[in-house]
Design brief:
This protein has helices at 6-21, 26-41, 43-65, 70-89, 114-130, 139-147, 160-167, 175-199, 215-245, 264-270, 273-290, 296-314, 318-336, 338-346, 350-373, 377-387, 399-407, 412-439, 446-459, and strands at 104-105, 108-109. It has 2 domains: 6-171, no CATH class; 177-463, no CATH class. The chain is globular and about 70 Å long. A two-stranded antiparallel ribbon has the order 1-2. The chain is mainly alpha-helical and 473 residues long.
């Protein structure tokens, strides 16, 4: 039951109808709906997530009351969450087929949303340990927060206190919540089926199999992947936020036009915002503060540790460490050249300066995505070598050496689909801010719905059943 499937929307609107029809039982309805959603996606996930929910809830309760051994209890709770994450997330590397079949999806061990689940549990324990959150929340409240079905698979990460405070209120039916939720979900469906899934057909094997390609072909392929993962993940976020809005609960925004960022630091403030904020609060600030006597070195150490943890969180292996390493290099370089860039901006026309910043930022981010996307270190290194090759940057044949690898074939049908995919992605990128404003409004715009419906019908990939990319994280 993917978040863009017909089954999900039937389930969503049924739960919403029951939620408002029985206002006295709203919390129980949300809990039952969330547990049913997890059960439908993967039965084994329900057992694991419930066990972690109960463990973290009672650990947090004792943290707010305990006077002795409080520190030991806190660090033990953190350790158990981290160990559980690594065992479940990376168990294919160690256990493989020895694990029960219920834990496997497509040959990989799969516990629904374990990465995001672990982060929000850690945030809860920290808030209880530091006294930032009270202990009035019931087990039902915390179970809803932990397993809330619009966000359980891939976030966005939501502060526990504001979420539970909202649960304590009686949520009334409001027409604007329903309209805004449907508008937002419509945008997410369009991004997923028309944009992301079409771009998934571009350069399908370039980063999975060895082969010789020109530098510009590799660069174009990784740019297409960058747009694909952005459209895919922001589509999930749009649907999750829209679905939650039906229940009068607002989730945190996760993207703010990241490919319009004029620096890498600005890019990370716009990309996966809820994860960025979590890493900043629970990793960067503690590291930088603990080393504050070392001045600028403390900032660099904070950046290094934070970005490295982010890379390892996404996946184990040299490729993800290299991905993190490149971004550390970008951020430290920007920090070191801040004064030079400030002086340079004084001598350049503002729009030109900003345009160059956007171009170089996007190029740098795409280069790091080579390591993020490649299936092995060897392929990633080969593609990086090819993209940096001066003598072999342009292909001998524009069609055979450039279009065919990107289109997934040299036949006319593949080329036509490729051109349509790029054109649709480009047109949407141009009007993205306007489409986003419509999707966030509480007005019924029939032209908007008709355009989304016709686009999905005419250009959507309806027969592939692609999972959201970030489900694997």
């Amino acid at each position: 039951m993917e978040l863009y499937s017909f089954d999900f929307f039937l389930f969503l609107f049924f739960v919403a109808a029951v939620f408002y029809f029985f206002p006295s039982g709203q919390r129980i309805i949300l809990l039952c709906g969330s547990l049913l959603f997890v059960l439908a996606r993967n039965p084994a996930s329900l057992l694991i997530l419930l066990a972690l929910t109960i463990f973290n809830y009672y650990t947090g309760r004792h943290l707010s009351k305990a006077k002795s051994l409080r520190q030991l209890l806190f660090y033990s709770g953190l350790a158990i969450n981290i160990v559980a994450f690594f065992l479940i997330r990376y168990s294919p590397m160690f256990a493989g087929d020895a694990l029960p079949g219920a834990f496997h999806t497509g040959g990989e061990v799969y516990i629904l949303g374990i990465s995001f689940y672990s982060l929000q549990n850690i945030a809860y324990l920290v808030s209880m340990y530091s006294g930032q959150n009270d202990s009035r929340a019931s087990l039902i409240d915390y179970a809803i927060y932990s397993n809330y079905f619009p966000k359980v698979t891939s976030g966005p990460l939501t502060p526990v206190d504001s979420f539970i405070d909202r649960l304590r209120e009686k949520i009334l039916f409001r027409k604007e919540n329903i309209i805004t939720g449907i508008n937002r979900m419509a945008l997410g469906i369009f991004k997923k089926i028309v944009l992301a899934d079409r771009l998934s057909m571009a350069a399908p094997l370039l980063f999975d199999q060895d082969g010789h390609y020109s530098g510009i072909t590799v660069f174009a392929a990784i740019c297409l992947f960058a747009f694909r993962i952005y459209f895919d993940f922001s589509a999930y976020t749009d649907i999750a936020i829209g679905a939650s809005r039906l229940f009068g609960i607002e989730l945190k925004e996760n993207f703010r036009y990241p490919f319009r960022a004029s620096s890498v630091a600005d890019f990370w403030r716009r990309w996966h915002i809820s994860l960025y904020d979590w890493l900043r609060e629970y990793v960067y600030l503690p590291v930088a503060f603990s080393l504050r006597q070392f001045g600028m070195l403390a900032v660099i150490a904070g950046i290094g540790v934070t970005v490295l943890i982010s890379g390892i969180w996404h996946g184990a292996g040299l490729t993800f460490i290299a991905y993190a390493g490149m971004n550390i290099l970008y951020l430290v370089t920007e920090l070191a050249t801040k004064n030079i860039k400030g002086k340079l901006s004084e001598y350049m026309y503002p729009r030109i300066y900003k345009g160059l910043g956007i171009f170089f930022t996007f190029s740098a981010v795409c280069l790091s995505f080579i390591f993020f996307r490649s299936s092995s270190w060897v392929i990633a290194k080969t593609r990086m070598t090819q993209i940096l090759s001066v003598h072999d940057f342009f292909p001998e044949s524009p069609v055979g050496g450039f279009i065919a690898p990107l289109a997934g074939g040299g036949d006319l049908e593949s080329q036509f689909n490729f051109y349509v995919s790029v054109l649709l992605a480009t047109l949407f990128f141009i009007i993205e801010t306007k489409a986003d404003n419509i999707a966030r409004s509480a007005e019924v715009r029939w032209g908007y719905f008709v355009l989304v419906f016709l686009s999905v019908l005419l250009f959507g990939v309806l027969d592939k059943g692609h999972h959201f990319i970030y489900n694997q994280f």
